[in-house]
Design goal:
Largest sheet: none
Number of strands: 0
Number of helices: 6
Mean pLDDT: 87
Shape: elongated
Number of domains: 1
Low-confidence stretches: none
């Protein structure tokens, strides 16, 4: 395997890491939305159901004294239910998680491939395999918000620079001590 091929595989590995991190961050984002919308929805609908089905005079007094309470709670439960239905945060989180897993698998294939010496024909076949797998994954992948992608890119490149500096520091001969 030539030095250019190794560098190309390492660049691919970096790009896959960025994509993987971006999708995991997006997954986390949508799970947060799912909980921030879903939990209040459960609480509000439970309260509205309990208040509307209760036959005690204190519950009826609340509705008589504050007629807007039931209306406001009903509006909020409708809004939260609509957000859950139209945004579908749990489904989107799972889609991004699956893409992150596929990018991670490709990245590990490259890591494993780089660990052992290869014949030129194996290298060409491997490049074709990675290109095809990456294309299929990219076609199926939902979009990652730009800010999450850029954050993943920044973190990944900073880590790569830090690793490179560490390798250079380890490669330098130690100064002899008297």
């Amino acid at each position: 395997m030539t030095e250019e091929q190794v560098e190309m595989l390492q660049a691919m590995e970096t790009r896959l890491t960025i994509s993987q991190r971006g999708h995991y961050a997006t997954c986390s984002f949508f799970l947060t939305i799912h909980y921030w919308v879903g939990i209040p929805l459960i609480i509000i609908t439970t309260v509205v159901t309990a208040l509307s089905s209760s036959e005690t005079s204190s519950t009826l007094d609340v509705f008589i004294q504050f007629p807007w309470v039931a209306t406001v709670l009903g509006i909020f439960s409708t809004i939260f239910a609509s957000l859950q239905v139209f945004i579908k945060p749990s489904e989107k989180a799972e889609q991004h998680r699956q893409c992150a897993i596929r990018y991670g698998c490709l990245k590990r294939e490259i890591e494993t491939f780089l660990a052992y010496p290869k014949e030129e024909i194996e290298v060409e076949e491997f490049f074709e395999h990675v290109r095809e797998s990456w294309q299929v994954t990219a076609e199926m992948a939902p979009l990652t918000p730009k800010r999450l992608y850029l954050k993943a890119e920044k973190e990944t490149l900073e880590e790569a620079r830090a690793e490179e500096q560490q390798k250079l520091a380890l490669a330098q001969p130690c100064a002899e001590q008297p």
